[in-house]
Amino acid sequence: GAGVSQTPSNKVTEKGKYVELRCDPISGHTALYWYRQSLGQGPEFLIYFQGTGAADDSGLPNDRFFAVRPEGSVSTLKIQRTERGDSAVYLCASSLQTSGTDTQYFGPGTRLTVL
Amino acid sequence: AQSVTQLDSHVSVSEGTPVLLRCNYSSSYSPSLFWYVQHPNKGLQLLLKYTSAATLVKGINGFEAEFKKSETSFHLTKPSAHMSDAAEYFCVVSGGSNTGNQFYFGTGTSLTVIP
User: Fold this and answer.
1) Inter-chain contact A43–B90, Cβ cutoff 8 Å?
2) A93-103: average pLDDT
3) Which of A56, A99, A109 faces B43 most closely, judged by CB atoms?
4) What's the pLDDT tens digit per position in A17-29?
5) A106 Cα distance to chain centroid
6) How many beta carbons lie within 10 A of that of residue A7, not counting itself?
7) Residue A86's closest CA among A40, A47, A38, A46?
8) Which residue blocks in chain A are alpha helix, DSSP H?
């Protein structure tokens, strides 16, 4: 079956611009997570959704970052007024539920470069 | 709070020799632990997971890991390395259902396999 997909695979933008990153989770997965992976580091949690609601957004670095999941499936991560420090790979993952034992399935990521 | 420490940032082995990638965890309750592998320009792939069943967990591609509560360790091993094992490996602890199962990643271990 289809895995988690993310678009675009690469995004180059200029400082100050607005970007949207899209995630299509595995069909039927109610939980969706966003992580950010900087060069040479492990992924760091940003936000997770249970259904349509953002259940925990404690990892978002500041109010320039926002994410939505209006129909409980596709999610969009939105970054306003991008800064060079936002350059990273943004990963999306989904799981069947939010049980502590559930496996998260990751997409290939979107590499964001802010010039 | 949950966290993992990967004790080696780089490991180099010869093809056909054993692999040992070390991970120590910290958790305020019984954790779920995972190992993921990330090949260059590929998404994170689950190798194996521990969820309080058997302490010796077998995964894909001949990898296995042993959960040792007394040592708070979850080291990854493989008896004989293949060239295709060269990749970045991440040890992960789950935050548990109280935190929506967000994952806490280690900083990664880069495995090099020498022919």
Assistant:
1) yes
2) 81
3) A109
4) 999 999 999 999 9
5) 10
6) 13
7) A38
8) none
Contact between B99 and A101 using a beta-carbon 8 Å cutoff = no
- Determine the residue of chain B that is closest to A95 in CA distance: B101
pLDDT digits (tens, 9 = 90+) for A101-113: 788 999 999 999 9
Would you call A37 exposed, middle or buried from its count of C-beta atoms within 10 A (0-12, 13-18, 19+)?
Answer: buried
Is pLDDT of B100 > 70?
A: no
Q: Could you tell me which of B52, B25, B17, B43 has the C-alpha nearest to residue B106?
A: B25
- Hey, are the CB atoms on A42 and B106 less than 8 Å from each other? yes
Chain B CB within 8 Å of residue A57 CB: no
Closest chain B residue to the Cα of A111, Cα to Cα: B41
The amino acid sitting at B112 is T
Cβ contact (<8 Å) for B90 and A42?
Answer: yes
